[in-house]
UniProtKB/TrEMBL annotation:
<feature type="active site" description="Proton acceptor">
    <location>
        <position position="120"/>
    </location>
</feature>
<feature type="short sequence motif" description="HXTX 1">
    <location>
        <begin position="36"/>
        <end position="39"/>
    </location>
</feature>
<dbReference type="InterPro" id="IPR004175">
    <property type="entry name" value="RNA_CPDase"/>
</dbReference>
<feature type="domain" description="Phosphoesterase HXTX">
    <location>
        <begin position="92"/>
        <end position="161"/>
    </location>
</feature>
<keyword id="KW-0378">Hydrolase</keyword>
<dbReference type="Pfam" id="PF02834">
    <property type="entry name" value="LigT_PEase"/>
</dbReference>
<comment type="function">
    <text>Hydrolyzes RNA 2',3'-cyclic phosphodiester to an RNA 2'-phosphomonoester.</text>
</comment>
<feature type="active site" description="Proton donor">
    <location>
        <position position="36"/>
    </location>
</feature>
<dbReference type="InterPro" id="IPR014051">
    <property type="entry name" value="Phosphoesterase_HXTX"/>
</dbReference>
<feature type="short sequence motif" description="HXTX 2">
    <location>
        <begin position="120"/>
        <end position="123"/>
    </location>
</feature>
<comment type="similarity">
    <text>Belongs to the 2H phosphoesterase superfamily. ThpR family.</text>
</comment>
<dbReference type="InterPro" id="IPR009097">
    <property type="entry name" value="Cyclic_Pdiesterase"/>
</dbReference>
<feature type="domain" description="Phosphoesterase HXTX">
    <location>
        <begin position="8"/>
        <end position="85"/>
    </location>
</feature>
<protein>
    <recommendedName>
        <fullName>RNA 2',3'-cyclic phosphodiesterase</fullName>
        <ecNumber>3.1.4.58</ecNumber>
    </recommendedName>
</protein>
Amino acid sequence: MRFFVALSLPENVRWQLRLLCGGLPGARWVPPENFHITLRFLGDVDGRDMDYVDAALASIRAPGFQLRLAGVGHFASGNRVKAVWAGIEKEPALLHLHDKIESAVVRAGLPPDGQKYTPHVTLTWPKDPPMGKLQEYLAGHNLFRSEPFEVTHFTVFASFTGGENSVYRAERSYALTARPEASVQNAGR
């Protein structure tokens, strides 16, 4: 079974992302229930190793934070487009959480990721889109901004392949500590 660590997205943000899913020939759009922000791909991990990863992730202490999705872009290899994505506004707390998760996973015995972390939400894995259409799509959506949302936890998901789309199942969530300013705002209500 394959696993990854990610942030779930609230329903209103998923809805906003759905509005981006169209207008690109050859695109296989990610279903809204699968939208997420990957923090660390774990791959195939057996039960005993997953217990070590779980214990390491459970020991993470980090504050909650707010995120907003911003803009669209793509990953390419040579002339081949691999993915089209919605970006994330820069947020140091997200990078801090990613680094803590990377350290915990390596401490649990998995190899280091070794790739530069670029937070994003994958929208599609297009199949040879015409470059002109891709440029039109990116230009047409480059001003995309989601509503800001609170990040209160991160989750380990299991990924099951088969059929047209993968199915993701939340296995365990890990709470982040409350943001001091969020606590003060909620106390006044």
